[in-house]
Specification:
mainly alpha, homodimer, 73% helix, two-stranded antiparallel sheet, 321 residues, 15 helices
């Protein structure tokens, strides 16, 4: 069994190659360069781990992992266009550096190359894996659409927000695991529990992401603390605060969010603290972590095989950056 | 053997269904509505014809044809974003009507659904068809990138322009035929000649498109005659004129193209006529048609089976609208 770091390193060795033709460089170089910037490679490693939970890592697990990572990067490039984001991984986003048409088209070819990797998978598994991959790809797009819809709507309730997060973030983590498990020959029941492990872990991860954006240590957190508040983003914290605070506090919160005044972040954080939102978020995260671990427990393999996943889960939801 | 119109009608019957989930409607309704606007359905019918050239139409030919049509519509939606086109099929483009993010994401899900149709194809053919589909998809994106690169570059030579047209237009026609032929059990050699038939036909089609944009009958041509000239687009005609005209004429042409003066289209057309560009374009079209028919001839099936393709080719390159 490999640890997360070992699998990241093995994946990097496999993935560190040119995924596109040389020409036209105006199309392919920007997206190849974007891939080389790295990222945590969590999703491809989840596919490898999903495989290794049930069997030795099969040769087909590598193109599967590459497909997953390419798909993830395709969504980042296209989401950044839609969100008009200037920065990603500390560099200018593809559209900011090369223009929207190249970023749009570059994302498109990245998705096609992801399918070319899926086409390398043995016919015995290909249809089942592609079916899950396709369903997941659509769900991730649905999540992005709902996220944009929510930005425009006056109020979003918690179930709708959680559903959006599931689609936008969780299902790809869950599916990455399950596609690996399909290669590993897992039973339907084991696949189901592994998927649910990933889905709940993904929600816990997002709760934590929202939490860190507000309460993270500025020295450790990669992004600007308070970024979501500055951008008036709906987050677990904000939605819960708007749903549970007393009327005067709610009114104050809305008034502050309607401005871009100095000290906006600090004022909102003070309200969050006064309402106990920080403790609530930690509890919510724990709820989903517990659900995730319940499903991991239910998978019918000896617990020693689950160790890398247990460690990865702990790393993902206890990270402070 | 079915005629083109019969296959269009049979394809419409198959394709006239909801290709997307109901929710979120903000994502899926715009792209479903776009598909319902129609189009000539040339590409899916080419897949059906490629199949029927060698065998009866197999059940798998229908999802293949749907995948091809979805892919084509995906490129239209994304190209319209990049080209900032306001109209398509007489209606507002998806991005003009619903905003760029929805058009971008809607195109993405359309591509994913195309792959879901490919995933319905029997495992005996799926890998070979997906491989050609993927290569073609990348080439079409390359063609769009080159087209945009050319818009920015001062001069484009004819071989580079023809290469761009091949990628942007021809390869999908050629691959649509060949993917059908794979289902029909065609030999490699027959597949090759069918592909070359489609590739050359596609170039002839584009020569004609450029010709009609300049010299078409305004009452019959669907688009505004002279649209390419107004938009300063590089076309077969313009590139040839700039390469072959005498220096003073070339200078005059460049001067006119640098303006948006009244009568611009008529002035350019007068130069085209004086240089014999209209006759040259007709000759060029014939050259590619002849190449196409040479390859059709070379396919080792009785000529009666080729009749629908012969008729379709004549229809495509002799159309006046």
């Amino acid at each position: 069994m490999y640890k997360f770091e070992e699998l990241v390193s093995r994946f990097e060795t496999y993935f560190n190659q040119r995924h596109f033709p040389a020409n036209p460089g105006t199309l392919y170089d920007p997206v190849q360069d974007f891939l080389a910037l790295g990222g945590k490679r969590v999703r491809p490693v989840l596919s490898l781990m999903g495989n290794e939970l049930f069997d030795e890592i099969l040769p087909d697990a590598w193109p599967l992992a590459a497909a997953v990572e390419l798909f993830h990067n395709f969504t980042l490039i296209h989401d950044d266009i839609m969100d008009k984001a200037p920065l990603r991984r500390g560099k200018a986003t593809v559209h900011a550096a090369y223009g929207e048409p190249t970023a749009l088209l570059g994302g498109d070819v990245m998705l096609v190359v992801a399918y070319e990797y899926l086409n390398k998978i043995d016919s015995r598994y290909q249809k089942r894996i592609m079916q899950l991959f396709n369903r997941t790809a659509m769900e991730v797009c649905e999540g992005q659409q709902l996220d944009m819809d929510f930005e425009k709507s006056a109020s979003v309730d918690m179930p709708a927000y959680i559903h959006m997060i599931e689609l936008k973030t969780s299902v790809l983590l869950a599916a990455s695991l399950r596609m690996g498990a399909i290669l590993g020959g897992a039973s339907e029941n084991n696949q189901h529990h592994l998927y649910e492990f990933g889905r709940n872990l993904g929600i816990a991860f997002q709760v934590q992401d929202d939490y860190l954006d507000a309460f993270g240590d500025p020295d450790k957190f990669g992004k600007q603390v308070g970024g979501d508040i500055m951008a008036n983003k709906k987050t677990f914290l904000m939605i819960h605060a708007l749903q549970t605070a007393d009327e005067p506090v709610k009114k104050e919160l809305k008034q502050i969010m309607g401005t871009n005044e100095a000290g906006k972040v600090e004022k909102v954080l003070n309200i969050f603290r006064a309402c106990g939102i920080d403790a609530w978020a930690k509890d919510l995260k724990d709820t989903y972590i517990n659900k995730a671990f319940y499903h991991l427990e239910e998978i019918a393999v000896i617990s020693a095989r689950k160790k890398p996943l247990t460690e990865l889960a702990a790393y993902l939801v206890q990270r402070d950056k």
